[in-house]
Specification:
Largest sheet: 7 strands, mixed
Order of helices and strands: HEEEEEEEEEEEHHHEEEEEEEEHE
CATH topology of the largest domain: L,D-transpeptidase catalytic domain-like
Oligomer: single chain
Structural class: alpha+beta
Shape: elongated
Number of strands: 20
Mean pLDDT: 93
Low-confidence stretches: 1-22
Number of domains: 3
Distance between the termini: 79 Å
Number of helices: 5
């Protein structure tokens, strides 16, 4: 009985400590993009800071101050409304200024501040670094485009942007301006497989000039841009199987070739324009050729359409 009483008291003390440790006021940034430990918002996008209060008095008013790089940006007062067992208040606004946003809330002897939100520009150019480039790369990777996470707008980023533009039906270029950032923020630009039941396979969409690798469940794994045959030497259409793989460079300048029908192959090549240009093969950028060559196995299906 004595031991049971000790355990009961200990449990009560732990619960009391836990209750005391629970914050009476929290401020949470919302409508932002989570990137590891960072919170990202695009310039001119709406950001919301939501306050959560426990043990509040109905009608209680809280002061909310938003700063950018430590300077006052927005200052409002909000009445706490009932939400479940606690209370809630919020402020919404468009983040026009670049830098670190942070919200500070005060009221009823309580105070709290939010995690910071980095507001970044909606464009990126070759050679640039920064959180805006990281946002671009991670969003493209989330949508399964073949891209590295270098943090620098490099050649791989250019190629992924071009593939994204092709899939999205946008003008073909390497630039990443406001339209690209806005679409990525909304999660647009996904490739929808035509043959998801084919398991691990490749789809070459000639109308959009993209090559898409699919995993064993038929889901999109990586998307990259390609250049197929011209109207004079068109790429064969149909469903085929990988029957030969040749590493290295051959006498025709084809790099890491993967053959799927007669002399038709997926291969790297120095020139991969934005539209049809080959003698029938599916050209891909040389930096991507080794990856595709290793990923494809004998017998994998290659579906060519469009």
């Amino acid at each position: 009985m004595r031991r049971l009483a000790v355990l009961t008291v200990s449990a009560t003390l732990l619960l009391s400590a836990s209750a005391e440790a629970a914050p009476r006021l929290r401020v949470i940034p919302e409508r932002v993009y989570t990137m590891g430990a960072k919170r990202i918002a695009l310039a001119h996008h709406e950001v919301r800071f939501r306050g959560l209060v426990r043990d509040f008095v109905p009608g209680e008013v809280m002061s909310l101050r938003v700063t950018v790089n430590g300077r006052r940006y927005v200052s409002v007062r909000r009445t706490v409304t009932q939400r479940g067992r606690g209370g809630e208040f919020s402020v919404r606004f468009k983040a026009h200024r670049l830098g670190k946003l942070r919200a500070h809330a005060d009221g009823g002897g309580r105070s709290a501040r939010s995690r910071s939100v980095d507001v970044v520009r909606r464009s990126a150019g070759y050679g640039q670094r920064g959180l805006h480039v990281q946002f671009l790369q991670r969003r493209l990777r989330d949508l399964r485009y073949l891209i590295g996470l270098s943090g620098r707008f490099d050649g791989a980023t250019q190629r992924a942007v071009l593939a994204y533009r092709k899939v999205s039906g946008l003008p073909r270029s390497f630039s990443a301006g406001r339209t690209i950032f806005e679409r990525l923020a909304r999660g647009r630009g996904r490739f929808v497989p035509r043959y998801p039941r084919h398991g691990k396979h490749v789809e070459a969409d000639l109308s959009r000039q993209v090559l898409v690798l699919h995993d064993r469940k038929g889901k999109v794994f990586r998307i990259l841009h390609t250049a197929s045959g011209t109207s004079a030497t068109p790429t064969v259409r149909g469903s085929f199987r990988v029957y030969s793989k040749t590493p290295g460079v051959n006498s025709l300048g084809m790099v890491h070739s993967v053959y799927f029908h007669r002399g038709y192959a997926i291969h790297g090549y120095p020139s991969v324009p934005m539209g049809p240009a080959s003698h029938g093969c599916l050209r891909i950028p040389i930096p991507n050729a080794r990856f595709v060559h290793r990923w494809l196995d004998y017998g994998d299906r290659v579906d060519v359409y469009g």
